[in-house]
Amino acid sequence: MRTPLILDCDPGHDDVFAIWLAAADPALDLRAITTVGGNGRLSHTTYNARVVTELAGIAGVPISAGAESPLVRLLTPAEAIHGDNALGGPELPAPAREADPRTAIELIRDTLDASAEPVTIVATGPLTNIAMFVRLHPDRLSRIERVVWMGGSTGRGNITPYAEFNSWTDPEAAAIVLGSGLPFTMIGLNVTHQVLTTREVVAGIGAIGNRTAAFGVELLSFFNATYETDQGMPEGPLHDPVAVALVARPGLVTTVRARLDIELHGTETAGATSVDLLGKLGREPNADVATGIDVEAFWKLLEEAIRTLA
Fold first, then answer.
1. Crossing angle of helices 13-24 and 241-248, rounded to 10°
2. Which Gene3D superfamilies does the UniProt entry name for this protein (predicted)?
3. Residues in a beta bridge with 147
4. I want to staple 152 with a disulfide (CB 3.0 to 4.6 A). Which of 76, 188, 193, 228 is the partner?
5. What string of DSSP letters covers 81-123?
6. Which residues are catalytic?
């Protein structure tokens, strides 16, 4: 049985590969894409989602725009990594498809209501939309199978010394979703930094030979260049599709049960994810936290998905 899925994202180079994997993998049933301000302004992230679904021949999946900014903080897009339009590098074709007129919250609600079974939400950006849904529709949380989030880290951060970008952008939202009681999985930098877009990886994607793969290579060329400049990593880590891969292939990503808390007030640590792997705090575990990944199997999975697209 295919897993029904909503993808909440902020495209963003790595979000693009998450969209393609979610749409193309035979184990998944992608029913909706919602966008949020994060890697770029909402106008850009929504436009980018329209572009990359149309380019890849993905049809029948509604795309709705969500929150423009975090719940209580100002949005600072990741322009150093993703460029001014959140998808720097290739020239973006003007998409013919329009965004769905519903808001992201309405689309999530309607998708859950229309499903005969609980739906998994994979979130690859700040958790603003999901937090708003939790607050507005607490009666529908039982319709959500779980939330799988690319965010946080068991170690150091990438936007501040301790905070990962998605968590730092809207830690209040992350805390709301984590505290909602929904089953929650965190896939942090400690795992996604194992998934590097090496020359061999980029060449393998390019060798697929279709339009989607060629566009993906352009994206990765820009992404690797900015990652080298900003992070000192010439081979950028492709964070977001790891969250989709966890749902598509249970066991590909290993996880442990642990206590997870979001730092909201620290002068130097706001947005940091406190993961008590050793149980030192004596608090009840509340999340599944990713600790490892089969890197070779991940790239094979992603290549197989891209191969089926336009």
1. 20
2. Ribonucleoside hydrolase-like
3. 121, 184
4. 188
5. HH-TTSS-SSPPPPPSSPPPSS-HHHHHHHHHHH-SS-EEEEE
6. 239
CA distances from 43 to 11, 171, 204, 240 (A): 11, 22, 32, 20
Determine the pLDDT at residue 64: 98
Q: Give CA–CA dist 10/116, Å, rounded.
A: 28
Amino acid at 250: P
- How far is Cα 240 from Cα 124, in angstroms, rounded to an integer? 6
**Cα–Cα distances in angstroms (integers) from residue 135 to residues 38, 50, 146, 180, 287, in the given order:** 20, 28, 16, 9, 20
- With beta carbons less than 8 A apart as the criterion, state whether 177 and 281 touch: no
Residue 128 amino acid letter: T
Q: Is the pTM of this model over 0.85?
A: yes
- Where do we find the tokens 């229309």? 114
User: At the top level of CATH, which class does the domain 3-307 belong to?
Assistant: alpha beta
> ∠157-69-119 over CA atoms, to 5°?
80
Total count of residues recorded for the chain: 310
The residue to which tokens 């009840």 are assigned: 284
Is the separation of the CB atoms in 260 and 151 below 8 Å?
no
29 bridge partner residues: 4
Whole-number pLDDT of residue 225 = 96
Residues of the chain with pLDDT under 50: none
Nearest Cα neighbor of 9 from 150, 175, 171, 157 is: 150
- Cα separation, 98 vs 95, in Å, equals 8
186-to-140, 155, 164, 277 alpha-carbon distances in Å: 22, 13, 12, 13
**What residues contact residue 218 under an 8 Å CB cut-off, 6+ apart?**
89, 90
Q: What is the pLDDT of residue 160?
A: 97
Query: Following DSSP, what letter does each residue of 12-62 receive, concatenated?
Result: SHHHHHHHHHHHH-TTEEEEEEEE-SSSS-HHHHHHHHHHHHHHTT--S--
Structure tokens belonging to residue 220: 């990765």
Q: Is the dihedral of CA 304, 305, 308, 310 positive or negative?
A: negative
C-alpha–C-alpha distance, residues 113 and 124, integer Å? 23
